[in-house]
Amino acid sequence: MLTYEQAVEWIHSRLRLGIKPGLQRMNHLLKELGNPHEKLRTVHIGGTNGKGSTVTYVRHILEESGYTVGTFTSPYFERFNERISVNGQPVSDEALTELVEKIKPIAEAMEHTKWGGPSEFEIITAMSFYYFAEMNLVDLVLYEVGLGGRLDSTNVITPMVSVITSIGLDHMQFLGNSLEDISYEKAGIIKKNVPVISGVDQPEAKSVIRKRAAEMGSELFELGDAFSAERVALLEKGERFQFSSRVRTEVYELSMLGTHQINNAAIALKVVELLKETEGFDTDVENWKSGLMKATWPGRMEALSDDPQIYIDGAHNPEGVKALVKTIGERFTDKKVSILFSALHDKELKPMITQLGAAADQIAFTTFEFPRVASAEELYEASAHPNKEKVPHWKDYLKKKVQEMHSEEVLLVTGSLYFLSEVKPFLSVYLENYRNNK
Q: What is the pLDDT of residues 206-235, one digit of tens each?
C-alpha cells in the first residue's frame, strides 16, 4: 500500500520521460483501464489563454443549475489534487492514492512495450478518466487541454462541445513558430459533427479553425459573429457586460476583472446555451447570472489585499501580458503601478517585459526554485525601464514592499503560475500577520 506522499512522488517521477506528444500510449493505457473515457459526457476546452477561466465559468453555471461537474485542469495552483476536482473540491488524498495503485502496474508494464511508459501528464489524464467514470460519478466533465490539442493526452474524448478560447504564441518549441501552425494544433480537438465554439480573433488563426471545422462537418460558433459580448460598465470589483446570441440578449456581471474575462464568460455562456439546446441540460438565465458572479479562478487578477492594494496575475505569455496591461490601463490610471515579475526561461521574455515596462512606474525582476526558470539577471537585462530592480530574494522584497506601500500605489505580482503558486500562500500569511501587528 502506498502513502499519499509516495503516490504523488511516483506521479512526479514520470516527469523524467518529458513531454511525449501522441495518443498511442494513451489509448493503450486507457484500454487496460477499461476505456473509462468512453463512459463520460465531456466538454473539451483548448486555447492559448482563457482555458481555466472558461472552465470555472461553465462549472459554476452548471453547479448553480444543480449538476455535478468534474474538472480536469493544469497546472495546479496550491495543491496537486486540484487538477482533478468535483464541484471545485479536489480529489481526496485517499482516492488519489487508490488511483495511483490502479494505474502504476499498468504504466510500469508499458515500459517494456513498443509504446514505452506513459508520461506524467498521460498518467494524470488517465487517472481523471477513471476517477470520474468509476469512483466519483458526475453529470459531465470539463477537460482542459494540457498542451496544443491535436496530440494532447486529453484528445481521446469525443465531447459534446469543443472550445478554442484564443490563439497566441506560446509553447512554440512544441507547436510551431506561426499562428497558423499553432492554430492547426489547437484545432486538432475538433471532432466529427461536434459543435465548436471559438474566441479566436486573428484572421490567419480563424481561417485554420474554419477549415478544420468544415472538414469535420462541425458547426462553428465564433465570438463576434454567432455571439458577442460588450462591456456595459466597469465595476469596482468586476465587470458588467451584455451577451448577445441568436437565442437571447442579456446583461450579466462578473467578479473577475478584464475585457478578456468578458470574452471568456461569453464563450462559457455559449457553451451552456449549446448544452441546453442540444444535450438537454436544464439551466436558466438566473443560474447563468448567479454562476458567473460566483466564479473565481486563482491567479487571474486575484486581489490578495485591498489595503495595501496587491494583485496576482498569471500572465505568462505575450497575449496574457497584453490582457494584463489593458486591465492596468482601465483600472489603475490614477495609481503608481509596481510590478514584480518572474518567468520560465523558455517563454517569449522580451515581448512580455517590454509590454509590462510600458505599464509600470517601477518593475522588479526575480527568480524562484523551479526547472527552466529564468534568472533575475536575464530578466533585468531584457528590460529598458528607467526604474528597474533585480531581486534575488522575492520574499524579502515583498515584506519590504508591503510595509512601504501607500494608498496611491498598486502592486502586481505576475508571470509564471508556478511562481504565483508560491507567492500566494506566503503573501496571504504575511499580510494577515502584518495587519494584526499594525
A: 999 999 999 999 999 999 999 999 999 999
Fold of the CATH domain 4-294: UDP-N-acetylmuramoyl-L-alanine:D-glutamate ligase (3.40.1190)
Whole-angstrom distance, CA of residue 394 vs CA of residue 396: 5
122: CB partners within 8 A, 6+ apart: 14, 20, 25, 26, 29, 153
Instruction: Render pLDDT for 274-310 as a digit per residue (tens, 0 to 9).
Output: 999 999 999 999 999 999 999 999 899 999 999 999 9
Q: How far apart are CA 286 and CA 367, in angstroms?
A: 45
The Cβ of residue 43 has, within 10 Å, a number of other Cβ atoms equal to 28
Q: Are both 4-294 and 302-437 of the same fold? A: no
- Per-residue pLDDT, 285: 96
Is the CATH number of domain 302-437 3.90.190.20? yes
> What's the pTM value of the predicted model, to 2 decimals?
0.94
Helix, coil or strand: residue 399: helix
Domain definitions of the chain by residue range: 4-294, 302-437
Summarised one tens digit per residue, pLDDT across range 13-37 is 988 666 666 799 999 999 999 999 9
3-state secondary structure of 173: helix
Parallel, antiparallel, or unpaired: how do β-strands 388-391 and 362-366 relate?
parallel
Closest among 300, 239, 287, 267 to 60, alpha carbons compared:
287
